[in-house]
Amino acid sequence: LSLTDVHQGYTWIGRLLQELSNLTHWKTSIFIPARMTWYDLKSLEEIATLTNLFPLVQAAIGSHGLAGLDRLLGLRVTYLLQKIHLVMDETVFKDKAWSDLLKNLFNSLTPVDNVIGQPAKFYHQQHLHRATRALTTLIGLIADLGQHQLLRHCIAYQLSLEANFDAKLLFSSLKAYNSLVVQKIKSTEVM
C-alpha cells in the first residue's frame, strides 16, 4: 500500500477519520492545549474545540464507533512509524554521506571550549544544507505522527469522560435497583 492508499478512507469511518485529519492538519491549523482548540494558521480563527468536536462525533457514531476510530488511528500510527523507520533506514543508516555528515556534526559539537561566531551560518552551511531533502520528508512524517497521536489522545479523553459519566449513571441505577430489591424482600418477609 502506498501512503495515499492508507490515508484514503474506504469505509465511512475511514472517511470520517480523513475529514478529521484534514480539519486538524498540522500544515493548516495549530492546536492550543490550554484552550483545547484548533485554530487556522492563516486567519487565526477557531476551527474546532475538543469539547465540541468529539462529543459531536461520539453522538454520531457512539462509543463503539469512537473506539473503532481510535483503533484505525492506531493502525495509521503504526504505518507512519514503519514509514519513518524505512526512510531512516534508506537515508540515514545506509547512506555513507549521512554517516559522514553525522560524524562531522559530532566532531564540530564535541569541543565545547570555544564559541562559534556565527552558529546559524556555520551549521547551516556545514551540515543542514546537505540534509534538507531527507529532513523535510522526516519532518512531514513526524508531524503526521504527532497529529494522529493528538487525535488519539482527544478520542481517549472523550471515551474516558463518557465512561465516567456512564459509570455514575450505572452505579446510581444499580443502587436504586438494589434498594428496591431489598425493600421487596423486606415487605414479603413482613407478610
If you had to describe this structure to a student in words, what would you say it looks like?
The chain is mostly helical and 191 residues long. It has five helices and three strands. The chain has helices at residues 3-6, 12-23, 50-93, 96-109, 119-190; strands spanning 29-32, 37-40, 46-49.
Concise overview:
The chain is mainly alpha-helical and 191 residues long. The chain has helices at residues 3-6, 12-23, 50-93, 96-109, 119-190; strands at residues 29-32, 37-40, 46-49. The chain has a 3-stranded antiparallel β-sheet with strand order 1-2-3.
Count the E strands. 3
Unreliable segments of 5+ consecutive residues: none
Main sheet, how many strands, which sense, barrel?
Answer: 3 strands, antiparallel
Number of helices: 5
Helix content: over 70%
Radius of gyration: 26 Å
Characterize the overall form. Answer: elongated
**Relative strand content:** 5-15%
Strand and helix layout:
Layout: H1 3-6, H2 12-23, E1 29-32, E2 37-40, E3 46-49, H3 50-93, H4 96-109, H5 119-190
Antiparallel strand pairs: 1-2, 2-3
Protein traits:
3-stranded antiparallel beta sheet, elongated, 191 residues, mainly alpha, 3 strands
